[in-house]
Amino acid sequence: MIFENIKLAFSAIRANKMRSFLTMLGMIIGISSVIAIVSLGDTMRSMFAKEYENVGVGLAYVYIITEDGYYTENEMFTQEDVERLKEAMGDDLTYVGFETGERTDLQAGRKKEKVIISGLAENPTELKDPKIVYGRMLNDRDIQGKRNYAVLDKETALNLFGVENAVGKTVKTTINQESTELMVVGVYENTDSALMRMLGGSGPKSVYVPESIMISADSSNWTINFCMNTEGDMNKTLERVKAFVARMKNHDLSEIRSESAMEEMGMMDSMLGSLSMVVGAIAAISLLVGGIGIMNIMLVSVTERTREIGIRKALGAQTKDILIQFLIEAAAISAAGGAIGTALGISIVTIGGAVVGITAVVKPAVVAVAVIFSAVVGLGFGLYPARKAAKKDPVEALRYE
Amino acid sequence: MKEIIKIEHLHKTYDTGAVQVHALRDVNLTITEGEYVAIMGQSGSGKSTLMNILGCMDRRFEGTYLLDGISIEEQGENELSRIRNKKIGFVFQAFQLIPRTSALKNVEIPMIYAGMKGEKRRKKAEALLEKVGLGERIHHMPNELSGGQKQRVAIARALANDPAILLADEPTGNLDTKASHEIMEFFTKLNEEGATVIVVTHEEDIAQYTKRIVRFQDGQIISDTKVVKEG
C-alpha cells in the first residue's frame, strides 16, 4: 500500500513537471544555502585551527597586571627570572624567552628593506620554524655564543642582494640604537597560508637573530614568552607557570595574567561556530518559505484533484489512504528538493573552495540535519492540505466541476 | 432468493437553512440477488439521493438499510469505505476515470484499496478489460478512449472486487444512442450471468432493458412494476 502510494506520488509529480520543479526550488535554495553557509563556517574553523598549528598551539606569554598600567622593576621580568622559570618547569616548556621584536631597516650597499627583527632564545625552532631554503636556521650555539647571525626571508634577500641565496653575505642594521653588522646564515621561504594571504597579511618580513645580541644580561621585559609541550596537559602547565611566576615575583595569583594561542584558538573557534550557526539559522528561514510554497501548491493540487479524491473514496479509499497519498506527495517534493539542494550546496562549497584554493569541509552531520529537516518541512506543511483532501465528502467531491 | 438490499422507512432531509427539503419520504425497497432494476424519476425526484445512500456514500439518513446483511446506519466511516470497496461496483454518468492514468491502472484501483498483491491484481484487471472488450487498449489513457470505451473501463473497474451489487447512475447519460445500447446490452449480459444490477435513469427506453422499474416522484415510490418483455 505504501509502495503504491509512493509510485502514485511520483507519477503525480511527473504529471506536473514544471510546477513540481518550481515548488522544489524553494527547498533547493533553502537547503543549499544552509549547507553552503554552515560548511563555509566549518571550513573557516578548520583553517584557523591549521593556522594555529603552524604558529604553534603551545605558544603563550605571561605578565603581571599593575593597577595603573605602569611597570616598575618589581613587575618586570629579568633574564634571571627566565632562567628560573625554565629550570622550574623542565620539559613542560620547550621554549622560554623574552618577546623581542624591533622594527628596523636592513641595509646592504645602497639598498634598504624594512623588517621586523625578532630575537630567538634557546630551542629557537620551538618558537619559529620557518621553511629554510638556503643555509640553516639559528641554533643554540649561535644564541649562547651571541653570534651576529641572521636568517632572512627569500624576498628580502632578493631585494637586498639581487639573489635569493644570500648565505654568507652581511647586512647592516640598527639594534637598540646601535649599528650592527649581521651575517646571513639562512634564507627561509614565506609559507603564509591561504587564510593569511586572504587577510592580506604581508607587512614587513621577519628577520631572526639570536635573542642574546638584542638584549643585555641586565635587561628586563614585561612579558615572558614560552612554548608549552603539546604532549602534556597545556591547561595545567599554564596554571603551574602562573603559580610559579606569582611565587617568584611575590604577587597574588590573581595579578598574573597569561595569553595563549590555545585559549585564543578556542575563542576564535567558538566565535566562528556561533557566527555560522546564526547565519545558518537565517538561511533556514528560506526553508520555511520553501515549506509554505509546498503547502500552497499542495492546496492547489488538492482542489484540482477533488474529483479524483471523490472517485478514490467511492472506490473504497479510506481517509487514511488519501491522507497518506497526499502526505507522501508533499514529502517526496520536499525530499527531492532537499536532495538536489544538498548536491548543489556541496558543489557550491567545493567549487568555491577550489577557486580560492582551500579545502572545503562539509560535515556529514550538517547534510543529514538539512535533509531530515527538509523531509520534516514537507510532512509538516503537507499535513494540512492532505487532511483537507482526506476529509472531503465523496458525494460532494464527485460532483465537483 | 437472498435479499441483497432491504430498505425500510427511509427518510432523508436536506437542511438548507431557511427551508427543509424532504428528498426521501418513507421509502421501502427490497432487492433480491440477481435482480435487474431501474430506478426512474425526473430530476429532483430523490433518485440521486437514494443512489448515494444505496452506494454507502451518504450515511446521514433516518430508517434502516441492510446491504448484504450489514446494517449500514451502524457503520463508521472506515467501515463504509470498506463496504464500498468490497460490496459495491459504481458506474457513473461522467465515467469518473482518473485522468492521466491508464485503463489498466484505473481498473486496479479498487483492488489496490482491497490490498490485493501486484501480479494477481494486474492479471485480474487485464481479464476484466478483456471481458468488456478492451483487451487491446489496456494501456490507453482515458483521453484516448471514446465515451463508450470509457464507460466499459468503468464497468470493468466496478467488477474488480466481485461486488454484491452493480450500481449505475445514469450510465448512458453522456453517451450517444449506439453506445448507450451497447452499454445496456452489456449490463443485461452481466445480469444473465448472475449479477445484481441497479440502473438509475430518467430515460424510458434505457429502463426497458431491465426487469423491474421503480418510479420515484417527490421523494416517494409511486410505482414498482415488472417489465413485460414483448416477443
Briefly characterize the structure:
Chain A is α+β, with helices and mostly antiparallel strands and 401 residues long.
Number of domains of chain A: 2
Helix count from the secondary structure assignment of chain A: 14
Molecular shape of chain A: elongated
Any idea what the radius of gyration of chain A is?
33 Å
Total count of strands of chain B: 10
Low-confidence stretches of chain B: none
Average of pLDDT of chain A:
85
Order of helices and strands of chain A: HHEEHEEEHEHEHEEHEHEEHEHHHHH
Total beta-strand segments of chain A:
13
Low-confidence stretches of chain A: none
Series of H and E elements of chain B: EEEHEEHEHHHEHEHEE
Whole-number average pLDDT of chain B?
Answer: 93
Give me the side-by-side strand order of the main sheet of chain B.
Answer: 6-7-8-3-9-10
Strand content of chain A: 15-25%
Q: What gap, in angstroms, lies between the N and C termini of chain A?
A: 29 Å
State the share of residues found in helices of chain A, binned by percent: 55-70%
Bin the helical content of chain B: 25-40%
In this structure, how is the largest beta sheet of chain A organized?
7 strands, mixed
Protein model, in words:
The complex is a heterodimer of chains A (401) and B (231). With 401 residues, chain A is of the alpha+beta class. Chain A has helices at 2-15, 17-55, 79-89, 124-127, 140-144, 154-161, 194-198, 211-214, 234-249, 261-304, 306-314, 319-356, 364-390, 394-399, and strands at residues 59-64, 77-78, 93-97, 101-108, 111-120, 131-135, 149-153, 170-175, 178-189, 205-210, 220-221, 223-228, 256-260. Chain A folds into 2 domains: 2-51 and 267-399, no CATH class; 58-261, no CATH class. In chain A, the strands form 3 sheets. In chain A, strands 4, 5, 6, 7, 8, 9 and 10 form a 7-stranded mixed beta sheet that branches. In chain A, strands 3-12-1-13 form a 4-stranded antiparallel beta sheet. Chain A has a two-stranded antiparallel sheet with strand order 2-11. Chain A is elongated, with a radius of gyration of 33 Å. The mean pLDDT of chain A is 85. In chain B, strands 6-7-8-3-9-10 form a 6-stranded mixed beta sheet, sandwiched between helices. Chain B has a 4-stranded antiparallel beta sheet with strand order 2-1-4-5, covered by helices on one side. In chain B, helix 3 (103-113) crosses helix 4 (118-131), helix 4 packs across helix 5 and helix 5 packs parallel to helix 6 (177-192). Chain B has a single domain (34-61, 72-226), classed as Rossmann fold, CATH 3.40.50.300. The chains are: A alpha+beta (401), B alpha/beta (231). The interface between A and B is medium-sized, with 21 and 27 residues.
